[in-house]
Structure formats: structure tokens, C-alpha cells
Amino acid sequence: MPARTNRVRRGGRILLIAAALLAVGGGVAWLSYGLLGLGSSNRQEDIITATATRGPFDHIVLEQGEVESSSNIDVICEVKSTGGGGGGGIPILWVIEEGTYVKKGDKLVELDASALENQLKTQKIAVASAEAAVISSEATVRTAEIALQEYLEGTYLSERKTILSEVALAEQELRKAELNLASAQRLAAKGVIKGLQIEAEQFAVENARNKLEAAQARLKVLDELTKEKNRVQLESDIEAAKAKWKSDQSVLAEEMDKLREIEDQIAKCVILSPADGVVVYANKYSSRGGAEFVVEEGAVVRERQVIIKLPDPSKMQVKANVNESRVTLISEGMPAKVRCSAVPGEMLARVKRVNKYAEPGSWFSSSIKEYATFIEIIDPPPALRTGMTAEVQIFVNQIPDALQIPVHGVYEYRGHHFCLKKKPEGGWETVEIKIGATNDKMVTIEEGLQEGDQVALNPRSFLHLMNLPDVEEVTDREKILAISQSGTRPGNGNAQDGPSGRNRAGGPPAAEGDAGSPSGPGGPSRGAMDPTAIVDRIFANADANGDGTIGSDEVGALDERMKDRVAEYDTNGDGALSRGEVLSGLRRRMQMGGGPGGGPGGGPRRGPPGGE
Asked: What angle do CA 473, 476, 477 make, to 5 degrees?
């Protein structure tokens, strides 16, 4: 009995689990078919209609961007990288808090000058040694100059006078000897003396003459050779001493320059504000989202590296990255409007510049390129700050009077566009239309409808009421030729031109399962992961009333992943999701490496969120 009772209990638990699984499956099926409209009854009384109206039409490109100043004063590190810091830079000892309003001359950053102070001590010793060498060289030059003067005005003259005395004495001795010889010759003629004495007197004359000639030769050598030799030698000593003096002076000047440079580098370790402004750190991030350089105490900065930016609050702009499919629509000078959640109202602006080269991608981004576009804000309010997230509306085309309907009222089939129009007597008819310019909410109608006509929103849910004609598929070549012949600028309803992610053939997104859509089921290629196309499909499933906003009563139509992200994407906290908020949220998640629906893990998901 106990074994049988246990078997019965186990069987009961299995039945309960099976019933629970069936209930969960039924609930999921009910959510899928009921909330997403996959299995609804599609009753005619449930059709939501919109009226074709005439009025001003703005063809806009909607993007998210970041507010920055177009005129920034960069505060850079002017300390050379030899100043200490193992990575070839110099550490930050203190930095002012970001966001602080500073005046000209206020202290902004203090760098570590300890290594430079050690260099200063060593350099002072080198300067003292160079000064001693200069003093010694100067004394050597003066000594050499005195030696030359001493020889020319002393030694030379003394030696010359000595020789002159010897010459005079030799001349006197010669004359005396000649007189003695003459006297001896007279006496010999008288026979008083003998011939031997005359020879002795002759020898004395010769000896005196030789002494005179020797003295005269020494005088000539002194005047013509010895004096010049000693003068040249002494003058060369002077020049050598002067050259050594100049060399030592150059060494001293170089050492003094090094000393002043080190003192200047130490002074530059304290960075002062060059002007009034608000402190913004010049942090750098890699393409993978990681921090390459963060301004903080202990961070190492290199020479000429920007540490702080002081933006001019009177010259503000928005930098927005525009998808490559829409960048050709934008040109310099186009009017725009900027809206920030932290600043009330809208700000007038104009397109200042569109970069000609795409922004660098990252390893997790798709192959779709984006181009930086700068929108200048006219008369920015004082509350506007750099770094704020802004929504930019660029007015590509403005039509003062255009017939228009919501984009959700258009159905594309084989490159042709159709509407489900309500008949005056009741019932519905399928009407082929020719569309013009489009934006994220409305599409202009050039042919096929008249003002006051009632059209069904989201006709893809009521395909059983549509009577689609057997039309030939419009090829991409034919679409391009039609655009070029009409002279319509790409983007005026003929290209993907807004956050709604319309396909490149023009008009709203293709219906799911539409074999005639250029992209096949699901619209644009799923491998591209274009966030604007994903946003369009989210709103196509959830925005039932077609007002361009997913209200609190429409959140239930989102899939579970998107429901979990409503609070995150709702940046202004109004409980509703705008296209800009969803687009910005998706881009943030894709930049963080997650899937567009917020799933972790890094790789692209097969298919967008929002009920598909």
C-alpha cells in the first residue's frame, strides 16, 4: 500500500507539472497572438484609421548627440617627458574637481616635480663648475696679454740696449786698436820698434772689428727674428686662451640654459587657468569602450597631452554621428532644432559641418559607417552644459502645404505602395499611391489620395481586406532612374532618411513576410544591425495609434527584453518611449557590447527586439 500510494503521488505531481507547462505555453501563445497581433481576429471594427490632411511638412533627420563647445581652450602638459614618471611622463599630484567654475589664474593641476628638483640640484653644481672654468680662462687670457706686453716693452728693449752697449764698446775698442796700430807703424818707420809689435797691433784691430761685427749681428737677429718669433708665440698664446675662454663661456651659457629650463619646468608643474571657464576633464576612451586616460591624482601625463578643457559657453554645438544611409541628405547651413532633457524648450541650430570621413569603428560594431555631424546652437542658454545628451532634428526638406498620412498607413508590395482606404458607403478598397518626402511619423502623398480620405493604420494586420493587383516588381535600377529623372533629392521619401529606418526604396518599412520587399522578411538585412531599422520595427509592433510614442498603455506589446529596458530607455521619466530615447538606448547597449535588446554576451542577435 505505501508503494502504491507513492506511485499515485508521483503520478499526480507529473500531471500537475504537465498542466503547468500547458498553462505557461498557452499564456505565451496568448501573449504572442493577442498582444502582438499575430493571431487576432482582424475584425473590421478594430481597424484604426487616420485622415489624409494637408499642412506644413518637415522632412527631418533625427539623431542623438552630445553637447560640446566649438571653442575650447586646451590646458596641456608643458613638462617634458624626461621629468619623471616611469612611463615617460609625469604623475598628477592634484587636480581641481571637474565642473568647477574657475577664473583666470586659478590653480588647475599640480604635477609631481620631485625628479625635476633633483635635476635642479645637480645642474646648479654643473653651473658652478662652468663658472670656475670661465674665471680661470679669463685669467689665462689676461696673463697672455701681459706676457706679450712684458716682452715688447721690457725684455726685448732690455736685450736690445745690452747689445747696443756691446756694439758701442766694440766700436771704441776698434778705434783704439786702429790708433795703436797707426802709432806703431810710425814708430817702426823711425826704427823705434820692431815688426813683431806691428803684427800684435794688427791682431788687436782684427779682434776689435770681429767683436763689433758680432755685436751688430746679435742686434740684427734680435730686431728681425727673435722679436718676431716671441711676438708670434705670445700672440698665439693669447688667441688660444681667448678660444678656451669663449668655449668655457659657451659651456656656462648652456649650463645656465639648462638650469633655467629646469626651473621653468618646475614652475610649469603648477598649471594655472588661462581664462575663465568650467573645468572639463580630457578623458580618453578606446574604441572598445575602455578608458585610455582618465584625469585623476596619480595618472601619468605626457608632454603636450591635453589634461583639461575650458569650453566657451557662448559657443556650443552638438556632435552627432549620422548613419551612412542619411549623411548624403545633410549639407552645411541646414536648419535644425536641438532638445535636451535638462534644458526646457527647443534650441534653434544649424548644420555647421559634416565630416567627409567615417568615424572609426570598434570590434563589436556593424559594418555600417557613421559620419560626425556638427550642429551649431544659436544663442545657447546658460543652463546648457558640455557632455549633455541632445536630440537633434535636422530639417532636410520643408514643404509648406503637403497632403500627408501617417507612415503606418502605407504598405509596400513589390516596390509599389498601397493604402487601405475606407469607402464613403462603407467597406475598404486598396489604392496604389505615389509617396514623396517622409519623416519618422508622416509620409507625403503625391498621387492616389485626396484630402479627407480615411486610411487604415498598419494595413499589414488586415491583408485579407486588401486586393493587391498583379504588378511587376520595381527593380533597384528602376527606382534609381525614377529618382534621378524626377530630380528629387535622395532622402525626400526615396532613401532611408530617419530613425524609422525606412528601406532604401522609399517609404515606410516593408511588411513582414512581404516577398516583394528588397530586404525580404523583416525589412533590412539582419546582419547589418542598423539600430534605426530596429527602432522602426519596435514601433511598428507597439505604436498602435501611430503617434510616434510608445505610451504606458502600449508597453505591453513589447517583448520581455524590451519591457525590462523601459525604465532604462525612458530618460525623461515620463513613462513613455520616444523614438529618440529608444534609438539612444539601443546604441548605448550596442556600444557596451551587448545585443540590441540588452542581452549580454557580446554578439549580434538574430533578429531585433520588439516582438519579431
From this structure: 110
